[in-house]
Amino acid sequence: MFNRNIEFVRKRFEGPLAYYGAKGIAPEISMIRIDEELVNGQGVYKFNLKKEILDASEKNLKRNDLFIVVGMGVFLTLKDSTKPGTEVLYPFVQKENTTAGIPGFKTDDIEALYNGELHIATGTTVNINAMPMQLFKRVPCRQTELLNDGQALVANGVKPSIDLDRDLQLMAEELIFAGTQDHKVQVSFPTFASSDYTTSAANTKGYVSFIAVGYRVIGGTSETYKNDPTNPYADCI
């Protein structure tokens, strides 16, 4: 993402820097990540950006912070409850056990995710009504696989392909998440009665993950900044 279009990223940075930098606050490169556990037969998932109880890999939006989005994506995640923080993000559906320690889904049912839509509202403003989930799918040319040694399947050691710099979608519209506001981020996709999102490894469950990368202004939503008529972000607070 940053390597693809540094001029675009720089403009996103210069916006908050112009105002908050003069106040002694430098915007910091940061991430918001919220994971929701997949439930068989359920096709609507809401991501609470201000979620208080977080898993090891999740990162929320603090009430006092302002977050200017550069790029975002929706991924599949498989978490081993015995090894928090070690999960792999997937921009595609990974099936079955492949490389040692990396699980997969038992069925293709979660492919329905990519026939769904992403909805985002910041405060009371609907920014994205129905963004096609197909935009977030990327299947690498070579995926993890098992080789047959003549007796049994053997993992070939290839790791799943994920690169946030490439797989996040740059957002032409400037999305701004203020910790003082309630935001709606929701993914919806088709389901059927027997939709099965279980995984093939013990202690492991599937999740859908919303990730936004951008610039965080720590303490940028105070009343002082909200009431300052010269603050270009005041209306977002």
Cα gyration radius (Å): 20 Å
Number of strands: 12
Number of helices: 3
What summary fits the major beta sheet? 6 strands, antiparallel
Total number of domains: 1
Low-confidence stretches: none
Strand content: 25-35%
Overall geometric form = elongated
Query: What's the overall average pLDDT, rounded?
Result: 89
Helix coverage percent: under 10%
| Cα distance spanning the termini | 27 Å
Structural class: mainly beta
Description:
By secondary structure, the protein is mostly beta strands. The chain has one domain. 10% of the residues lie in helices and 32% in strands. It has helices at residues 6-20, 164-167, 223-226; strands at residues 28-37, 44-47, 66-80, 88-90, 117-122, 125-132, 146-148, 153-155, 169-170, 176-178, 183-188, 204-217. The strands form three sheets. Strands 1, 3, 4, 9, 10 and 12 form a six-stranded antiparallel β-sheet that branches. A four-stranded antiparallel β-sheet has the order 2-11-5-6, with no helix packed on it. Strands 7-8 form a two-stranded antiparallel sheet. A hairpin with a 2-residue loop joins β5 and β6 (125-132). The longest helix has 15 residues, at 6-20.
